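We close this part of the discussion by returning to an individual protein. The amino acid sequence and the backbone structure tokens for this protein are reproduced below:
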Amino acid sequence: MRSGRDDDTALVGRQRERTLLERSLERARSAAGGSAMVLRGEAGIGKTALLDWTAARAERSGFTVLRAGGSEAEVGIAFGALHQVLGPLLGNSRALPPPQRAALERALGLRDGLPSGGFMVGASALALLAKEARRRPVLILVDDLHWVDSSSAAVFLFLHQRLTDLRTVMVCTSRPGGPALDGWPALPVDVEALSGDDSRTLLSRWHPALAAATAQRVVAEAAGNPLALAELPGQLATEHRQGIAPLPEQLPLGQRLEALFVRRLRALPADAARLLLLTALDSADGTIGEAVFGPGSAADGTSTEPDPCPGRTEHLLGHIEAAGLASLDQAGRLVFRHPLVRSAVIASAAEPELRAAHRTLAGRLREDDPRRLVHEASAAEGPAEPLAARLQEAGTRIALRGGDAEGALLLDRAAALSVDPEARARRLTWAAVMSARGGRLAYAARLVEELKRGPVPQDVAPLFAYAVVYVDQSHHVDFASTFSLLPAALAALTAPGAPDAPVHGDLVEQMFFKLLLASAYTGDPRGWETLERHRERVSPAARLCHRAWADPPRTAHGAEAELRAMVTRMTARRETGAAWLLLWAAAAVDGADPDLWRLFSGEHAYATQGSVAKSRCHQAFLRGRWDAAEDCLREADTAEELGYHTNALLFRHYYAYFLAGRGDERGLREIRQRIAPIAARARMRFVTDHLDHLDALAALAHGRYEESYARLRRMMTPGELPGDLSWFHLPFFDFVAAAVRCGRQAEALALVAAGRAARMDEISGHHAFLLAAATALVAEDEGADAADAAYAAAYAVPGAGRWVFDLARLRLAHGSRLCARGRRAEADELLHTAFRTFRELRATPWEQRCQDELRAVGLLPDPAAPACPLTAQELRIARLVATGLTNKEVGAALKLSPRTVGAALYRIFPKLGITSRAALARALAAPPEQGPLRPGS
């Protein structure tokens, strides 16, 4: 907290926050990299003081300081806070590429017209900042993020994630308990209450004449809140401050502190109170004369004549400043003492006063300014159809500029002012759709429930069906409405003579996508049948997405190649609907990559960024970036907070992949217990089947081959590829591996043959690698040369190195085979390479299996381990028998006859001092103090 109220920016306490802020400034100053930080704390805790301190430090160091503050009155104006931040730099926008400049200026209302497509505001803002950062370091300060409009907040989040390469620091403040920080990747820095010592120091500087007993009571009651320390003593009578009379039984704090300002407001002259109310409701940055009164207008909006008393404003300001409620800053703006003052001003005003103030503010704004409409709507006393129509038009314009969330607010207001019930329903329907797209899913759900209580006009019935499905799919984890509503809606939209698609894109395409999602998640045949009927009425991107998911062994050939071609032709400036379809198509063929993700670089709404995050999480598993596993849980928490409960479920399902790969069966069980019941209720086979596959993968990691095979056998039939398992390629390799280790060579061969017959390798690079890897596993029966060739062919599949975990498992299997043939040198290289990969992935069971193979052939001696009387081959046989395999199954796994296995067991039992197969596991388990066994000579 500042030690002086107006004279300096020294702080009392806050050493942790100051250190973090100074470190961030120094990194930017020295060009070591940019950073972003959010200071979170209760009202009055000192967040703004920290921003002031940071601004002063930065200005002394030659930074460009850009600053914005959120406002309750401005929260519905798209990109209002972004305009504040970028205002000083807009003169440099001429240096931006024309598409970026146009997108930025249109979003900020500086240029007429709509963007050519896509939403590039974030990328344009980043480019403008980058230009300034090349000249000098930049500091961005955003106060009261919880009151920043959604579009600006989304761009700030976009910048927050991408500042590391710029000489730029961003510091935002927010209150706890709200949605402002939803989706922000970094943990906020919590600005806590001041310590007792710091509170006493601050109180003595601000109120040095307080009696000791009074100061002690104030410190205790303020509980470390600097605003309370500043304000409470000023409300005490002189006899209380001097310690003459006992203090009141309770001192106000929190909401009661707000009441202090209300009492001060009531003591003001009426004109001064009206002036404060106009300021509280105003979002302009004008000076006090024209920004609040307007040219020649009175404070209450009742006069348009010049002010007859030139000293009136100064007189009113004197009252306001004397009450400690607000003061003029150097730019001539009336600035509130604290955000709580603004809240108190608005909360204490009567409805007629609020409406009068809104009328005044509306009267001084241009006709085409959306803020004028907001004020007019707030001033309205009842239904007003002309105003409702203007609000609808403005909301539509804002949505087309990328401000779906703000457009929804205007449509909702328009609905409230509608005279005709059908017009109201139409506007509410659009508001629901815009809210869902803009990431305000809970708000969309509320609107949908409101619409369900009355009739919906026929002309918007398909749009209403889309809104219901959107909310059900994303918020309620419910796909029933998808199949009950969308087939009829699609039929209505595509019937002969149907009207053109609504202005917000191709509704047929969007419904097709929602139906495809639900069909892939549930496998419901009604969805697939409807999709097939409408396949020719959608775009090439939608058709690609459909054939990638519908029946991949028979429909997805060439899908990845076509995907790559479409991504190459597409740019981020284009409408993002097609990019969404390509993102989902990429999920089917494991083809998502940075080129595809870049198409969404300017999209800030959570609906988009959540989908991109799911894609990144799954690709992180496939590509061996397993340090990103915890990102899945963070994304799940974010999705949960935003009301995207299906996304939360899917993020946890992707996290289960990492657990299964690492053999963490306890963690896998916990995830299953959390998400399987929800998925089962929604009939989400996509999740429940995946969990079954992951249980099989974990069993495979621990060498329980029979269990793994049994689980996978329930999903796949040898000799055919399932048509109802769109992601059949993921368990394909696991099935073959488990079957081979169980001695079921015929089943493994049959599945590989089915993969070849279906030309599985023509679907995608991952499909091709998994087929080649499975082919290598079953090639042992064809002889050593054939097996070597099959393994070499698998390694040679283009892009094989991308599939880190699968490739390491193939190397482990190959090395094991080479050990069995006595080719120790070749096995050594393969097993050690696999071992290093598993260690990096922290896949402990697989890492242990590499070590076991190496120790079994003496390639990884363990001097601390006691000698084992078994030969290398006897040890391999004993370990397999200990897992419960029969002699025949062990022989099949090691390419030995059952008789050879039996003979080996005849020698093994006496060497280990046992008489039964059941005792093998205990005999092979080394006591903790001895370490693992190693083979003798």
Remarks:
- The beta strands are 35-40, 64-69, 138-143, 168-174, 189-190, 326-328, 334-336, 867-868, 934-935.
- The first helix runs from residue 15 to 29.
